[in-house]
Amino acid sequence: MPSPVAVTCGDPAGIGPDLALALPALFPGKPLVVIGDREVLEQRAHQLGMTPRLWDWQPGEPAIRDPLTPDFVSVWHTPAGAAVTAGQADPATASGTIEMLTRAARGCMDGTFSAMVTAPVAKNIICDGGYPDFTGHTEFLAEQAGVDRVVMMLTARELRVALATTHLPLSQVPAAITPDSLIRTLTILRDDLVDKYRISVPRIMVLGLNPHAGEGGHLGREELDVIIPTLQQLRDQGFDITGPLPADTAFQPHLLEQHDAVLAMYHDQGLPVLKYAGFGEAINITLGLPFIRTSVDHGTAFELAGTGKAKSGSLVAATRLALNLAALEDA
Questions:
Q1: Which value, in Å, is the radius of gyration of the alpha carbons in the chain?
Q2: Which class for 224: exposed (0-12), middle (13-18), buried (19 or more C-beta within 10 A)?
Q3: Spatial separation of the C-alpha atoms in residues 208 and 210, rounded to whole Å
Q4: Separation of alpha carbons 163 and 151, rounded Å
Q5: Do 117 and 54 reside in the same domain of the chain?
Q6: Which pLDDT tens digits describe the chain residue by residue (331 residues)?
Q7: φ/ψ of residue 206, rounded to 5
Q8: Which domain holds residue 174?
Q9: Same domain, 227 and 305
Q10: I need a surface site. Which of 46, 98, 118, 207 has the fewest CB within 10 A?
């Protein structure tokens, strides 16, 4: 029996529990374990008019109770830490959210799980709840795994966009783009495209930092001083890299068809294009971890929790990708 995929419920007052409850019926016969507070899931199911059968799961047990009854939801009960009302975020639940993520990450590392899928959390709620250094799933999971560098990549349909820098103020981006950081980022991106996506020789398009990729130094020297020589160094090592290309003209169909992934220099350079292409169905995947982690491309949407109006497309896509990368389902 293959190890199941863990699905963390995210902030218990957000839409994560709503969406997680629907997954087992959408993936009948697939080993999924929902990590969250059982009472919250029961309350949310009642609000939504759902009647799933929640089964208390423990590590080592099979995740599939009965392949012929897809309404069974295997739940690893993880107390929220406080009473939960849909739509009303509470910092008192931060410890439960952290425990949820810790269980999933450690389970991936010890073989209990083959991958993890994360529903959205609210960073400010976790910080206010006693974890002031929490900056997001990506950084937390990197710390849990003991790795000092990971890469955020979002996908929508066939488009894959990775980031050289993530949640930085724009004023700090140029200094963060160094030869060492680019080499490490592109190496992680190349290696995970090979290992996780099974692309034998990944073709990577790299965007410039400045308008028109610096216009030969007239609009900034980062391309001349850092990006161009670093990319050439990697080409000399066998990387298949194009660029740096101007970001405003790089996302053309004929260019995208020739590449397996795009590396953007900063968050809002590449992600608006990707989210326009597939918002609500895009997927966030963390590269560089010793396990598979996928996530939704949206936030907690507290105002939709318990209303039945939350759209499940992104979590469904993230779950499908996790199953596929873990060789538990065809693409």
A1: 20
A2: middle
A3: 6
A4: 7
A5: yes
A6: 679 999 999 999 999 999 999 998 899 889 999 999 999 999 999 999 998 889 999 998 888 766 556 668 999 999 999 999 999 999 999 999 999 999 999 999 999 999 999 999 999 999 999 999 998 898 899 999 999 999 999 999 889 999 999 888 999 999 999 999 999 999 999 999 999 999 999 999 999 999 999 999 999 999 999 999 999 999 999 999 999 999 999 999 999 999 999 999 999 999 999 988 877 788 999 999 999 999 998 899 999 999 999 999 999 999 999 999 998 765 4
A7: -110, 130
A8: 149-287
A9: no
A10: 46
DSSP state of 83: -
Q: What is the pTM of this model?
A: 0.90
What CATH number does the domain containing 81 carry?
A: 3.40.718.10
Instruction: Report how many domains make up the chain.
Output: 2
DSSP 186-229: HHHHHHHHHHTT--SS-EEEEE-SSGGGGGGGTT-SHIIIIIHH
- 4 plus 123 within the same structural domain: yes
Residues 58 and 129 in one domain: yes
Please name the residue that has the structure tokens 């020739």: 258
DSSP state of 315: H
**Cα angle 206-209-215, degrees, rounded to a multiple of 5:** 100
Structure tokens at 77: 């009960």
275 plus 164 within the same structural domain: yes
> What pairs with residue 18 in β-bridges?
none
